[in-house]
Amino acid sequence: MHPVLAMTVDPWIAALALLTVAVTVAMGFWSAGKSKSAGDFFVAGRSVSVGWNASAISGEYLSAASFMGVAGMVMLNGYDALWYPVCYACGYLFLLLFIAGPLRRFGAYTIPDFAEGRYDSPLFRKIAVCFVLFIGFFYTMPQMKGAGTTLAYIFPGLPYWAGVVVVGAVITLNVSLGGMKGITLVQAFQYWLKMFAIALPVFVLASVVGHYHEHLGANAAAGSPAVPAAAERKALPAKAPKDEQWIAPFGSLTTKAVDSAIKSAPSPEAKAELEAARRPYSLLYTYSLIIALVCGTAGLPHILVRFYTNPDGVAAKRTTMWVMILIGVFYVFPPVYGVLGRSLTPELYEAVGSKGTDKVVLELPTLLAGKDHPLLGSVLSGITCAGAFAAFMSTFSGLLVSMTGALAHDIYGRILRPQSTPEQRLKAFKWSAVLIGGLAIALGTQVEKPNINFLVGQAFAIAAASYFPLLFMSVWWRGMTMKGAASGMLGGGLAALAAITLTTLSDVYSVQSLADFWVAHPLLRILCEQPAIWAVPLSIGLMIVVSKATAAEVPADVRMKMLVLHAPESLGLKQEYIKEHEGLGH
Amino acid sequence: MKESERTPDHVHSDAFLAKLMRDQLKLSVACALCFAVALVALPLLNYWQPELMARRVGGFTLTWLILGVLFFPFVWVISYVFIRRSIALEEAEAKAARDGSRA
């Protein structure tokens, strides 16, 4: 090993992180022997039990953004960042209420299968496949970023790209060997690892340095001073947000656009006008964020595909219930790191990106070393590093399976080589995994600069304005036509993408003319940064208008399709529908 | 077509489908409303009643306690109620479909 590396690497942290990787790979290999048929690879033979499936969905869902990003955001932005974990968890309720059951009853392998089955349109399948791949790549980038920064934390001096390549290659190998079944097992294991890794250090830390409510109480709120004799805290650097702003709603996250406009307001009148608009605008920002996160959760393709791994619709619903409990319990913890971090590691406010608040989860346990528990500090920091590994590894595997499924099952199996044998398709799955994994690694090396949660937010806003309206309307409205569905999905999704790209251009690539425009128009800036509040209604509106205009093209057997989507599975309508359908089609 | 003989005709009627979708949607929308009211109300309370929401409960401010901790159990309750009712609804629908075929 390089002498500099050897000196700074904490053996406990490195060992626990490596152990996580080793167990993940070993489980992948072990289950590879058990995955035989194409069904095993794509949807785990549809026979995963509720407990396993709920753990696996939760494991897949709790990504680097949840594990590291939420804590960092709460530390940086305070109260407003709490909407992230709450809506990440509550979006599942939407999924459960409106989408989970019908989708499962319809019985198709993937979302493109559903798109084609519902509208009898191979063209629409192709459009949907492109979107699965598209949203997927947006979501893989922050995971890769998490991998690069965590590895750079464990091995100081290791370049960012090396972490991305190493972690990406390991997961790609795992997926191409084990497919979905292997992944279900690995994901379930990783949920429990993450839960353990986020919860245990909190309890130990709290018993040594003071509890959640004590550290929160140390922050003065407007009209309510800090609780006297609360926990110890270090002096905040100048860059840190002030107590009143941090602990109260409508803080820096939601007022950033207006604040920068106020700074360069041309006249006192304009300034007063902007001051007055500040709170209404931040209310608008908050609502748009809520819509993006709630609807985005209900539209993420790599989560949706797992509903097909339930044996029946009742199991799908029970699974969602358990997922909500599992991730709800998890999400109570990351904000605790943010609150403790504000009191105890305020120096993180001074750094940016991967060296800043994003790594508070990894950094905080090492404080115990300064409290006469050096070994405990190292071990706990090792545990949170292992959890971070589990976080980006499991989410990336899930995405890889979903995207590989789209490529192998839809593009190869349905479009390029419809006559291929099951063996050929299995081979295609493996090669597709390698291809997509390679592409994701290449993209991941390009996103060192933007922060994790920002990247995830983009994926959510696009999913909220495309997949969510598609699924919701297709399930509940008989009058939808393929043209209506496609124009709504593409119109909403691309409009959201365009708006977000505009803000990325000015923030990440520092396009000056755009930055000046935002300063002059803070409301437009908020609407572009958080487009869900207009993009979701736009998408649904387009679906309704175009469907009405093309009402003659409503699929002829729409009544039967709706019956399959909604009638209890015990009536056995699905088999009947598929037989009839095949009879008509061939 | 043996399969379609097994399913009673009235299952394929528009009335049956309309009732099916209406009942399910009613349940889903009722549960979604509970959820949506909370999501809409909390920012509004923060907006109009900042002093009330900043009141201390333990070390937490009231609004932090609601959003950071209590929101999760609230959603679990809604989903638990929904799942119980929705499974019961499905059983009733299946029974109605079979009884209808005997009549």
Descriptive notes:
- The complex is a heterodimer of chains A (586) and B (103).
- Chain A has 586 residues and is mostly helical.
- Chain A has a single domain (3-21, 42-555), classed as Sodium/glucose cotransporter.
- Helix content of chain A is 75%, strand content 0%.
- Chain A has helices spanning 3-8, 11-32, 38-43, 50-61, 64-77, 83-106, 111-119, 122-154, 160-209, 212-217, 243-247, 252-263, 268-297, 301-304, 313-331, 334-344, 360-363, 374-416, 422-444, 452-476, 482-507, 512-520, 522-529, 532-549, 558-566, 573-585.
- In chain A, α6 runs antiparallel to α15 (313-331).
- The radius of gyration of chain A is 24 Å and the shape is globular.
- Chain B is mainly alpha-helical.
- Chain B has one domain.
- Chain B contains 4 helices and 2 strands; from the N terminus they run αααββα.
- Chain B has a two-stranded antiparallel ribbon.
- In chain B, β1 and β2 form a beta hairpin.
- In chain B, α2 (14-48) runs antiparallel to α4.
